[in-house]
Specification:
The structure holds 2 protein chains of 2 kinds.
Chain A: E1 3-7, E2 11-12, E3 18-25, E4 34-40, E5 47-52, E6 58-60, E7 68-73, E8 78-83, E9 92-99, E10 105-108, E11 112-116
Parallel strand pairs in A: 2-11
Antiparallel strand pairs in A: 1-3, 3-8, 4-5, 4-9, 5-6, 7-8, 9-10, 9-11
Chain B: E1 4-7, E2 10-13, E3 19-25, E4 33-38, E5 45-49, E6 53-54, E7 62-67, E8 70-75, E9 85-90, E10 98-99, E11 103-107
Parallel strand pairs in B: 2-11
Antiparallel strand pairs in B: 1-3, 3-8, 4-5, 4-9, 5-6, 7-8, 9-10, 9-11
Classes of the chains: A mainly beta, B mainly beta.
């Protein structure tokens, strides 16, 4: 079955750029699904960051849109997140997840903690 | 943006008892609502989609109901593994997709 695995630096300096990758295994990123990034600050709730389709079409949370880029790499069956100009408020566990139409987010990665600190 | 409000923030329930969790949308989301369960240190797990359809492998003690702006997740007889945080999420209007603040179900 499809599995997702996040990877990337666990520590990013303030004003820097957070970069994460989500590897898709057990299935193709070119299937009829959207692929999302979601984050969760420590002890808080879930915030949707944005999504991408294998064609490259994207949709972003307006609250983050000016700082977010999500891209897809079909050859490596993965998609990526870049979040620029980070501050301590961007410290969170970052999840990648599959959106399967009205089946909502049916598959999630295990999450990766990114801390913004000097 | 659709604001999702969950109540109560914390629900204390004894094992074997029934738990009823509420989720309210700031405007109608039709039946485009999902429920997730999250245990400490784990990713959320999909329980219910389309307001009332159980996801694959979810026990029948979990049920969802509602439409429009008012939704309920019911756990008919709480098992030890059900103590967790539960989130609702709307997918009728986006961007952005939005989640509720969560309800923590704890052991009474």
């Amino acid at each position: 079955q499809v599995q997702l695995q996040e990877s990337g630096p666990g520590l990013v300096k303030p004003s820097g750029t957070l970069s994460l990758t989500c590897a898709v295994s057990g299935g193709s990123i070119s299937s009829s699904n959207w692929w999302s990034w979601i984050r969760q600050p420590p002890g808080k709730g879930l915030e949707w960051i944005g999504e991408i389709y294998h064609s490259g079409s994207t949709s972003y949370n307006p609250s983050l849109k000016s700082r977010v880029t999500i891209s897809v790499d079909k050859s490596n069956n993965q998609f990526s997140l870049r979040l620029s100009s980070v501050t301590a408020a961007d410290t969170a566990v970052y999840y990648c997840a599959r959106w399967q139409g009205s089946h909502a987010f049916d598959i999630w990665g295990q999450g990766t903690l990114v801390t913004v600190s000097s | 943006e659709i604001v999702m409000t969950q109540s109560p923030a914390t629900l204390s329930v004894s094992p074997g008892e029934r738990a009823t969790l509420s989720c309210r949308a700031s405007q109608s989301v039709s039946s485009n609502l999902a429920w997730y369960q999250q245990k400490p240190g784990q990713a959320p797990r999909l329980l219910i989609y389309d307001a009332s359809t159980r996801a694959t492998g979810i026990p029948a003690r979990f049920s969802g109901s509602g439409s429009g702006t008012e939704f309920t997740l019911t756990i008919s007889s709480l098992q030890s593994e059900d103590f967790a945080v539960y989130y609702c999420q709307q997918y009728n209007y986006w961007p952005p997709l939005t989640f509720g603040g969560g309800t923590k179900v704890e052991i009474k």
